[in-house]
Write a structure and sequence with these properties.
About 30% of the residues lie in helices and about 15% in strands. With about 260 residues, it is an alpha/beta fold. The chain has a single domain, classed as Collagenase (Catalytic Domain), CATH 3.40.390.10. The chain has a six-stranded mixed beta sheet with strand order 1-5-6-4-2-3, with helices on both faces. It is globular.
């Protein structure tokens, strides 16, 4: 995809889908014997409740020059504290690493990077989540769809920071920190089992056209949004929130 050309015509097209990857999350073998390499959604209750893990550590690794904004990380922390029962607290560790040189990315490449860069894993009653801020885009991006991030294992997320920055560079787009926080919260919510991928539904609200996402119009867990109208409306007042139906699911599975 020629992203520069794409951004130049962004507001002259009627529909742009932006969201998370839902078709390449499991293109590699899962080692189900290891606590941090299980299928997406299988640690939803462990993340939400204090039954097995009383604390959470988030390891954020960013390619040099592509670290998220402080505002986005603070918003993300608030999101976690509002949703998770972790009496021993939530710790966010951040560091930068050199570029992998593997862009554009697919999940197999992202998983390869994780095996090199991830240093923190579940230990005792502390569960850990790994988040990688990448210096490139997803290889499936095209003129009608770009991937902002992917939750691809039970405790693993990639954020395509280069793509987020290019989207935010348009003067009519939301601020970078808003897009970052929305993407972080959305992808982490997939780790929490939303929608119907580890956290059972309390009422029907899964999008039949995009499984794993919410059908509620203004929910953080919508699969796709119209950039010119939908994204502007959804993020015009800040980072989108989870709808009451999604919140009910999380509470029933051990969350706040």
């Amino acid at each position: 995809m020629q992203i520069t050309k794409f951004l130049s015509i962004l507001f002259f097209v009627s529909f742009l889908v932006v969201g998370c990857s839902d078709d390449d999350e499991n293109n590699f073998v899962l080692d189900t014997e290891t606590g941090n390499t299980k299928a997406l959604g299988t640690s939803a209750n462990d993340l939400l409740s204090d039954t097995n893990f009383r604390g959470l550590t988030v390891e954020i690794i960013s390619v040099e020059g592509f670290a998220p904004t402080t505002t986005a990380i603070n918003s993300f922390r608030n999101f976690l504290e509002d949703r998770l029962n972790k009496p021993d607290g939530i710790t966010i560790n951040q560091r930068t690493v050199p570029s992998s040189g593997l862009a554009p990315f697919n999940i197999s490449k992202i998983r390869q990077i994780e095996t090199v860069e991830r240093t923190l894993f579940n230990e005792g009653d502390e569960i850990t989540v790994y988040i990688y801020f990448a210096d490139g885009s997803n290889e499936t991006d095209n003129n009608s769809k770009v991937i902002l991030g992917s939750a691809y294992l039970n405790t693993s997320i990639v954020i395509y920071e280069k793509t987020l920055r290019e989207l935010s560079s348009n003067p009519l787009a939301p601020m970078l920190s808003t897009i970052e926080a929305a993407t972080l919260n959305h992808e982490f919510s997939h780790l929490l089992g939303l929608v119907n991928i580890g956290t059972p539904l309390q009422s029907p609200h899964e999008d039949s056209l995009s499984l794993g996402h919410c059908s509620s119009e203004n929910c953080l867990m919508r699969a796709a949004i119209e950039f010119e109208s939908g994204m502007m409306d959804l993020m015009g007042n800040g980072v989108p929130t989870l709808c009451p139906i999604c919140l009910a699911d999380l509470r029933a599975n051990g969350g706040k």
